[in-house]
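Q: Sequence in, structure out?
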Amino acid sequence: MPSTEPLPFAAVDLGASSGRVMVGRVSGRGAGTLRLEEVHRFPNRPVRTAGTLHWDILSLYGGVLDGLRAAGAAGRAPVSVGIDTWAVDYGLLDASGALLGNPVHYRDTRTEGEEAKVGAVLSPTALYEATGLQYLPFNTLYQLTAAQGSPVLGAARRLLLIPDLIAYWLTGEAGTELTNASTTQLIDPRTRKWSRPVADALGIDLTLFAPLRGPGDPAGALLPDVLAETGLTGPVPVTAVGSHDTASAVAAVPASGDSFAYVATGTWSLAGLELDAPVLTEESRRANFTNELGVDGTVRYLRNIMGLWLLQECLRTWEAEGAPQRLDRLLREAAEVPGLRSFVDADDPAFLAPGGMPDRIRDACRRVGGPAPESPAEVTRCVLDSLALAHRRAIEDAQRLSGRVVDTVHVVGGGAHNELLCRLTADACGLPVVAGPAEAAALGNVLVQARAAGVVRGGLTELRALLRATLEARRYEPTGNRTGWDRAAELLAGEGARR
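A: Exactly. Output:
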C-alpha cells in the first residue's frame, strides 16, 4: 500500500549554470501530498584549459555530496536519491574505473566540421530515420566522431553520460539511463535500443556504454565511503529517474489531459508535445524536430531553442563592462518597451557561443531589417519577444507535423517565474499559458523515485494529478491581438529561408 507518512526523496538536479540538491516529501495518503525544499545550491562554472572548454565535474560532485550531507544534517535524510542533468556530454573511464580527464563542454568548438564528416557516411535523412534526433552540432554522436583517434578515447573502457557518471561515483554501479541516452543520436526511438547500424557505420564502439536502464529502475546504493562522507545511514538506494532534466521536467507538467504543449525553459527552451510514438518524416527532419524519449514510454517531440541563454549572456557581458543589471528591474523596464520593435531568430546558431551577446543580437536585428536595440531594457525586450516567437513557431510546427492539436501551453522551469516571457508567449501563440512549476525537473525526479518506492502509484496521469492538487500555477490568457505577431513570424520565416 502507498505510504501514509511523507517520505523524503533527494533530487540531484544539475543545470548548465548551477546545481542543487532538493528534498521532496511525498505521501500517498488520500489525495497525496508533495512538498519540495532546496537544501543546497552550488555554481556550475565551466573551465577552459589548453583551448578546450570543460565541465568542472569534481566540483559538481563535491556539491552533490555537500547537498546530501545538508539534507541529513537538517533531519531530511533521504530514503532514495535520483539524479538529472543536462544531456549529450559524458565522462570516459579507464579499465580501473578512473576518470580520464574532465568531460568536455557541449559549447566547445571541437565538433566543428563533424556534420560534413558524418554526412559523407550517413545522409541526414538516413540518420534521422534511424534515430529521430534533430541536428545539433554538439550531439554525442558528433562529439564521439570528433574524438576518434584521440589518446583519451583510445584508453577508454567505459563511457558514462553525466548523470550516470555521478551515479557511478555514488554507487559503484554503471548504467546508461534511457532518456539521456536518447539524446546521443545513437538510440532508435521505435525500439528504444541502440541503433547498431548507425554506430557501426561511424565506427562508434557501443560496448563503451553501460547497460541501458529506464526511469524507476534501481541504480545501486550509496557506497560506504559516500555514507561516511555525507553522514547518512545506509542503505540509501539510488533510483534511475528521467535523468535528462527535460525528461523529468516534462513528467512534472501539471496537465489534465493530452492536448497540451510544453515549453521547458531555462538556459534552453525545449518546446513541443508529448507523443506516444516518434515522428520520423523528412518534413519533421527539415523542421529540425527531435524525438527524445520520456518517462513511461513517451516521446518528447520538441525543438531546442536557444532560450534564456541569450539574456544570461547579455547580463554577463554588461557586468563585465562595468554596467551590471538587476534582472527584476530590467524586466520591469523591458515591459515598458514597445513590443516587436526589434526581434531575431532565437534558433540562429550564431548565438550558440558565449561572449558579446548584446552586439550579436544587434547585428541579427539589422539582418532581419529592424532597428537595433540600444539600451539593456530594449535588448531584453528583443530577447523575450524573440523567444516568444520561437515558442510559437515550434508549437505550431509540432502540431502540424504530428497531427496533434493543443489548447494550452505549459511553461515549466526557471522561465515560469518570468511573467513578461509567459505573457508574451500566450500572446504569440494565441493560447493560454499555465506557468509552473519552476522546479519541474526536481519534481519529476522526486515523483519517479516515490513511485518506484511504492509511496505513490499510477502513471503520468496520476502523478500530474498530485502536482495539480499540491502546487500553484499561474494562468496567462492571450490578449487576442495577433497581427503584429503574425507579421513578425512572416519576416523571421523569410530570414530563415535566406540563411
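Residues 187 and 194 are 4 Å apart (CA to CA).
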